[in-house]
Amino acid sequence: MWIQPDEMIDRVTRAVMARLPVPATPRRLTVPIGVSVRHIHLCRAHVTTLFGEGHELRVFNELYQTGHYAAQEQLMVVGPRHAIERVRVLGPPRAYSQVELARTDAVAVGLDLPLATEGRDPESRAVTLVGPEGTVRLPGGSEGGAFIARRHVHLGVDDAAALGVAAGDLLDLEIGGPRPTTLHGVLVRVQAGWRPEVHLDTDEANACGVRTGQTATLIVPSGEGADHG
Ligand SMILES: [Zn+2]
Predict the structure, then answer these.
(1) For residue 197, is pLDDT > 90?
(2) Of 86, 107, 144, 169, which is most buried by a Cβ count within 10 Å?
């Protein structure tokens, strides 16, 4: 059968391409670690109750994620056994309030807290907040409460795509330094505009000997993220 020269070139090109190794998807990413000290997120109504009518949260320092900040405002977190004073509020205000504690804090205040990703988790617990102008009782469950934050990584849409992962995937984190460790089950969270950053709480960070700003290597374990293309 007669083959047109153009078609021949096309066939040869495709045959050569098929034999070239497929470029491997990058499966590792160097990311900074942010250590989350116990903190509180508040809805606007609770800012008013705790700090007074017309009060606006004031910036204490900017956080790594654009637009987020540690506020000057602090509150007392009261549990059944104990209270912790001067717990930092993070801004801006959110749709609902939540308290994020390390397990060590939870034991101190007398709360058996679940590992969760948000304060509206059905397992989150009731807790009381005391401010200079008032007191708020977070009911827990779907209305917001206290929990221990699951270790997670913030990724922008492009970073997640480049790594071949999606929200909800669980990755590994290889940490160097004086207490080298690999953490598993680092939950992927994805939002447009986020900068890559792993969040660990103080218990995890202290156990691994890491501080805010230190970098570590995010690794996609085999079998994770494979079906996201
Ligand atoms: Zn986070």
Answers:
(1) yes
(2) 144
